Amino acid sequence: MLGEQWLSGELVAMKREIIQTDDGSSTIYIPELDENYHSSHGAIQEAEHVFIQHGLKKMEEKGLSSISIFEMGFGTGLNAFLTKIRASTPILYVGIEAFPVSEGEVNSLNYAERIGGKHRSDFSAIHASKWSEFVEIDSQFSLKKVHQKIESYELDANFFDIIYFDAFGPRAQGDMWEIDILQKMYDGLKKGGALVTYCARGQFKRDLKSLGFEVESLPGPPGKREMTRAWKI
After folding, report:
1. What Cα–Cα distance (Å) separates residue 137 from each residue in 53, 81, 123, 125, 181?
2. Total structural domains in the chain?
3. Phi then psi for 45, rounded to 5 degrees?
4. What are the backbone dihedrals phi and psi of residue 111, each rounded to the nearest 5 degrees, phi first?
5. Domain range enclosing 161
6. pLDDT-derived band of residue 13, with 50, 70 and 90 as boundaries?
7. Is 190 a member of any domain?
8. pTM > 0.85
9. 30 assigned to some structural domain
10. Which tens digits make up the pLDDT trace of 178-191?
11. Cα 41-45-46 angle, rounded to 5 deg
């Protein structure tokens, strides 16, 4: 199965494989990069820990009437799916993805089955929604999927409460972790908003601090010692 990924400024065709992670949930693996879309220690475990527990639920503690989320790296739709079924607050969700997964790949992912088959319709609705326009999945969850590279996309200024930063790791996709991309994230967040990511690389955290973020190192998901949450103060 061939996919496409941006690597070092060149568009390269790459093989993508569906594999099973340690918690039984599936992910996509790219052999040429030796890179997974999610942690091999558990795709669902990682997403629940990083983006739901330390992102969504932390923001819900503020008692906001609604929460706006930007996801950097929509990928398999797992983070959007978990947000849809875990949120207790109305959500406006924007996810950007330069190279969407195929219908066949979506159908091979077992997230709904692992979480509860009753949620299959939510997962299907997320992937069936049109690109480049807001779609009301239900009265509590509105989704816009953006088929574009982040380099040419501008976030609405001071708009988002949370950013899920879920690009491939710096080793495989270093351009996504450069300071000009992080500046876009900072500009797109409201004051009091937070960026959450699985990455805990030292240079990444120093770059966040240089932009004005207040950076927290938090315990990581299974298989990873730390993760990062950064607040726009």
Report:
1. 22, 11, 10, 7, 29
2. 1
3. -55, -45
4. -60, -45
5. 42-232
6. low
7. yes
8. yes
9. no
10. 999 999 999 999 99
11. 75
